[in-house]
Amino acid sequence: MENEWSYKERKVISIGAVSELTGLSERQIRYYEERKLIFPSRSDRGNRKYSFSDVERLIDIANKREEGVRTDEIRMEYKKEKVKEDRETRKKMIQGQLNARFMGQNNGKRFN
């Protein structure tokens, strides 16, 4: 699973390739960056680099735009999703810490 995450998150795809993959123009892609919907990295020469996750997000954005959803509404939706993911991650980390602490004290029994 970790390898899947790393390849999907690596920022290695050029804007031209992203345009071909998504069917969006380079101008549309830059616009979504301006609207804080995607966050490409920059190469040493200043070229934008995108990940496979960015490509998936751009396709999602394009679909929502076709349905008439405004970019500010999409951004708010993504922020809510991020907060929810962060809470779930925090909860799992705390549960893992509790399990680690009590497993040593209770002969390896897990508490969920």
UniProtKB/TrEMBL annotation:
Which PROSITE patterns does the annotation name? Answer: HTH_MERR_2
Pfam families assigned: MerR_1 (PF13411)
Coiled-coil-forming residues are none
Give the organism, scientific name.
Answer: Cytobacillus kochii
HTH merR-type domain: residues covered: 12-80
Whether DNA-binding counts among this entry's keywords is yes
Q: What domain of life does the native source organism fall in?
A: Bacteria
Task: State the protein's name.
Answer: MerR family DNA-binding transcriptional regulator
**Is Lipoprotein set as a keyword in this record?**
no
PANTHER family per the record? HTH-TYPE TRANSCRIPTIONAL REGULATOR TNRA, REDOX-CYCLING DRUG-SENSING TRANSCRIPTIONAL ACTIVATOR SOXR
Q: Which UniProt keywords apply?
A: DNA-binding, Repressor, Transcription, Transcription regulation
